[in-house]
């Protein structure tokens, strides 16, 4: 529209000049050509101005804002968990090779129990570890040393001689393994469960208790000398007991006691010689019949004076 407005006054001026000029100065065709050229020139000028006006000045490329990259904390190398003591020392299985649970025995009868035990842990059992009695009726055994190293996954077979209790009924003895520092372990998820001997005994004649007393304990005096050892034996019924005394210096003759009923009797006194080489004399009763059993031991310190 602007270029039309600019052309209009110009054309009017040209027309006036054409009317006033002599006829031979500018012909009509020449005038038309001049007007047309003028129009084209103005159109070109306006087009260039429009193009210049419409072309936006290039804007500056925005500088990117720096975004700090978070510093990652160093990742610790995972350390495998240390196995617990229960995982390291663990009995995974115990099999009864002899004397299965519920076996019926005579009261006082000796029997050999054999177990097959598997090391289910991750640590070896040392040869110095022991199978130890932990509860119930010990049946004459308090501990058994393994005697060989048992590696993880290995099976160990052990045989132990026990004595059945003389009291009729069901009896149980519980056992676990003990390390050199006194830690005990066994079966179960936490290795805290024992394994057992389970037997039933018949009510038969047997010695239920046997002990020794000494005429001097401790002994201090001239040497050589003798110490009198006096046995005391208790039974659960009628029958005959044969026994002898075992000491650190040797074994006595065999003696017998006959009982008509339950009760306690004093056996034959044994005079045992001691001298300066004796040191401490240990002694206990061994009942050969009916029990085949060792009973409690006593210790007698011996001091010889001039």
Describe what is shown at a glance:
The protein has 306 residues and is of the alpha+beta class. The protein has three helices and 18 strands.
Total of DSSP H or I helical runs spanning 4+ residues? 3
Topology order in helix (H) and strand (E) letters: HHHEEEEEEEEEEEEEEEEEE
CATH class of the largest domain: Mainly Beta
Tally of extended strands? 18
**Helix fraction by DSSP (H/I, runs of at least 4):** 10-25%
Task: Characterize the structure shown.
It is a single chain. The protein has about 300 residues and is an alpha+beta fold. It has three domains: about 1-50; about 85-200, Sandwich (Immunoglobulin-like), CATH 2.60.40.10; about 205-305, Sandwich (Immunoglobulin-like), CATH 2.60.40.10. Helix content is about 15%, strand content about 45%. The protein is built from three helices and 18 strands. The strands form four sheets. Strands 2, 4, 5, 7, 8 and 9 form a six-stranded mixed beta sheet that branches. A five-stranded mixed beta sheet has the order 11-18-17-13-14, with no helix packed on it. Strands 10, 12, 15 and 16 form a four-stranded antiparallel beta sheet that branches. It is flat.
How would the blueprint of this fold be written?
Elements lengths: L1 H19 L7 H27 L30 H4 L2 E6 L6 E4 L3 E10 L10 E7 L6 E3 L9 E9 L5 E10 L5 E2 L9 E8 L4 E8 L4 E3 L3 E11 L3 E9 L2 E10 L3 E4 L3 E5 L5 E10 L3 E12 L2
Parallel strand pairs: 2-9, 11-18
Antiparallel strand pairs: 1-3, 3-6, 4-5, 4-7, 7-8, 7-9, 10-12, 12-15, 12-16, 13-14, 13-17, 17-18
């Amino acid at each position: 529209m602007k270029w039309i407005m600019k052309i209009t006054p110009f054309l009017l001026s040209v027309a006036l000049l054409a009317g006033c000029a002599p006829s031979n100065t500018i012909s009509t065709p020449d005038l038309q050509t001049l007007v047309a050229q003028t129009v084209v020139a103005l159109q070109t000028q306006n087009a260039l101005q429009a193009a210049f006006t419409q072309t936006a000045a290039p804007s500056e490329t925005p500088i990117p804002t720096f975004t700090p990259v978070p510093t990652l904390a160093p990742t610790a190398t995972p350390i495998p968990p240390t196995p617990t003591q229960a995982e390291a020392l663990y009995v995974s299985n115990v099999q009864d090779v002899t004397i299965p649970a519920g076996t019926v025995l005579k009261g006082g009868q000796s029997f050999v129990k054999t177990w097959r035990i598997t090391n289910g842990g991750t640590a070896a059992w040392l040869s110095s570890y022991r199978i130890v009695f932990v509860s119930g009726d010990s049946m004459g055994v308090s501990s058994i040393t393994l005697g060989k190293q048992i590696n993880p996954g290995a099976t160990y077979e052990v045989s132990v001689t026990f004595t059945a209790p003389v009291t009729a009924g069901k009896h149980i003895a519980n056992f676990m393994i003990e390390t050199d520092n006194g830690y005990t372990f066994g079966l179960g998820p936490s290795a805290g469960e024992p394994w057992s001997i389970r037997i039933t005994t018949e009510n038969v004649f047997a010695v239920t208790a046997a002990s020794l007393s000494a005429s001097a304990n401790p002994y201090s005096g001239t040497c050589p000398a003798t110490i009198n050892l006096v046995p005391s034996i208790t039974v659960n019924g009628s029958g005959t007991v044969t026994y002898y005394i075992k000491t650190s210096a040797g074994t006595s003759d065999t003696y017998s006691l006959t009982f008509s009923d339950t009760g306690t009797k004093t056996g034959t006194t044994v005079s045992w010689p001691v001298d300066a080489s004796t040191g401490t004399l240990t002694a206990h009763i061994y009942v050969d019949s009916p029990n085949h059993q060792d009973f409690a031991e006593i210790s007698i310190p011996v001091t010889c004076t001039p």
